[in-house]
């Protein structure tokens, strides 16, 4: 059975009840098919950088990440947030294993020098991931990677989830703090073709973090020849319904 690759944004981790409810659904799904979690933590990185006295900015939804900030960014994403995610997943019975994108050479990276130490992740070696899934573990990935020169890299978590999903040829679900992609009237768009998506980007309706999510979805849809769903995490039944092939959130068509 195809693994489900679920991306969870950092905002979800600040809502303990919502996170636990969603992880309970994941435990249910895992009885039938493998589950892989990839988490963000953008809000937590904001808080950590501020505490350490750093200013931070995002360009087109991606954080400018100077090398000297990477120990703090890594501490937040691959330290505190990953451990918190793993701890809640243990309680949900998911048998989790915390990892970063370089574990077992899962991903390799080029560097988006314009943004500093920001990695562009490509799927590389699936052996470790397949081994963990075969043995009934739930891999829990942070979006930190290690570059060819051994440098720490910050990867947008939607793009990290896209690479991991391509690695295991899974079903990608991007969960976020809105019910899906919204139109100019703030209404949910149930299905989106590549051409419609491009038009909404040109019109400035899809922007920032959602534009990155769309790019992650379009890239994965093309690579795996499958539709990708962007949905909200507020309502855990949505994930359950999605697993039963009911329409939920925005379905991005390949
Ligand atoms: N067309 C759109 N539809 C929905 N959200 C959008 C759209 N354009 C921009 N956004 C913004 O994208 C955000 C989701 O992206 P992001 O903040 O990166 O979330 P996450 O942390 O879940 O990855 C929404 O909260 C919203 O502010
Ligand atoms: C390069 C880049 O933008 N990295 C992101 C990684 C975390 C992330 O994507 O978190 P959310 O999913 O919670 O937004 C960042 O530093 O915020």
From TrEMBL:
The keyword ATP-binding is assigned to this record: yes
Catalytic activity, EC: 2.7.2.8
Subcellular location: Cytoplasm
Site (Transition state stabilizer): 7, 213
Regions crossing the membrane: none
Residues that bind substrate: 41-42, 63, 154
Entry keyword Transferase: yes
Protein name per the record: Acetylglutamate kinase
């Amino acid at each position: 059975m195809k693994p489900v690759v679920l991306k969870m944004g950092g905002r979800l981790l600040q809502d303990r009840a919502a996170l636990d409810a969603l992880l309970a659904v994941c435990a249910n799904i895992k009885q039938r098919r493998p589950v892989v979690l990839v988490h963000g933590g953008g809000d937590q990185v904001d808080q950590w950088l501020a505490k350490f006295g750093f200013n931070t900015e995002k360009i087109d939804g991606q954080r400018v990440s100077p090398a000297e900030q990477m120990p703090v960014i890594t501490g937040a994403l691959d330290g505190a947030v990953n451990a918190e995610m793993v701890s809640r997943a243990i309680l949900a019975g998911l048998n989790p294993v915390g990892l970063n994108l370089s574990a077992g050479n899962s991903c390799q990276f080029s560097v988006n020098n314009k943004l500093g130490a920001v990695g562009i992740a490509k799927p590389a070696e699936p052996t470790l991931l397949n081994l963990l899934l075969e043995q009934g573990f739930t891999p829990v990935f942070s979006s930190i990677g290690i570059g060819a020169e051994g440098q720490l890299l910050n990867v947008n978590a939607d793009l990290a989830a896209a690479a991991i999903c391509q690695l295991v040829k899974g079903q990608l679900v991007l969960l976020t703090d809105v019910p899906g992609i919204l139109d100019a009237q703030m209404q949910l768009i149930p299905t989106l073709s590549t051409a419609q998506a491009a038009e909404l980007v040109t019109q400035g309706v899809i922007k920032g973090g959602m534009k990155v999510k769309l790019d992650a979805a379009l890239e994965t849809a093309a690579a795996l020849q499958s539709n990708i769903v962007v949905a909200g995490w507020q309502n855990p039944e949505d994930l359950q319904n999605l697993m039963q092939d009911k329409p939920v959130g925005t379905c991005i068509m390949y």
